[in-house]
Amino acid sequence: MNKPEEIQLLKGGKLLPLMEEFYTLQGEGFHMGEAAYFVRIGGCDVGCAWCDSKESWNAEIFPPVPVENVVKNALKYNSRNVVVTGGEPSMYPLDYFTLKIHENGLRCAVETSGAYRLTGNWDWICLSPKKNSPPQKAIYPRTDELKVIIQKEADFEWAEKNAALVSDECHLFLQPEWSVSKQILPVIAEYVMEHPKWRISLQAHKYIGIP
Fold first, then answer.
1. What would the DSSP string read from start to end of 9-38?
2. Residue-level pLDDT, tens digit, the chain, 211 residues
3. Total count of domains within the chain
């Protein structure tokens, strides 16, 4: 395939810059503990200083992979759940991806900062908003799960600002930033007890020692 053909397929969402794909347990948020096939797409310009997958930022180092290949790999495992993460998945057209996922009887979830317009037909949308690149307004009504990373006490204000924009059915989570989790977790616990609409999300996969 020559470069122009590759670019055309990439822009149409039939190819995606795949960083990695693996079968594991969901470690965070509402679906914590559930088995799922994870698809990490390369490319992100949000630039969080505490990002634990900075190697995903440069999409050019990850060769574009046909969506059909990803679906075929996901079907090898017992779980019907596919989780798309990044990087920042909303940088790419994902209608074709979710179409192929559903055609094969799988369910698809996405975790996104919402920095770009999210395409695709998703069974679950987890919005993890970042201050330095706030979400597009259109994603808030679609959000099933709001997961806000808390690094310092001032981040609670950002969490509440986003919580005011999602629907009443959206599940609200506060998650400690991993490098300061021991210090900030007691503060989050106290906040949740005072504001019980929130729940705590922990990065359980890091405690278990799985991807």
1. HHHTTSEEEEEEEEEEE--SSTTTT-EEEE
2. 556 666 666 778 999 999 999 999 999 999 999 999 999 999 888 777 667 677 777 888 998 999 999 999 999 999 999 999 988 999 999 999 999 999 999 999 999 999 999 999 999 999 999 998 999 999 999 999 999 999 999 999 999 999 999 999 999 999 999 999 999 999 999 999 999 999 999 998 888 888 8
3. 1
Residue 86's domain spans which residues? 3-208
What's the rounded Cα separation, in Å, for the pair 175 and 181?
9
| Residue 142 neighbours by CB distance under 10 Å | 14
Strands 145-150 and 124-127, bridge-based pairing: parallel
Task: Give the CATH number, domain containing residue 84.
Answer: 3.20.20.70
Q: What is the pTM of this model?
A: 0.93
Q: What is the DSSP letter of 69?
A: H
Strands lying side by side in the sheet with 15-25: 64-66, 15-25, 35-41, 81-86, 107-112, 124-127, 145-150, 171-176, 198-200
- In which residue are the tokens 């503990």 written? 33
The Cα 121–Cα 116 span in angstroms is 16
Residue 88 makes CB contacts below 8 A (sequence gap 6+) with 41, 43, 44, 45, 46, 112, 113, 115, 116
Enter the tokens of residue 156.
């609670």
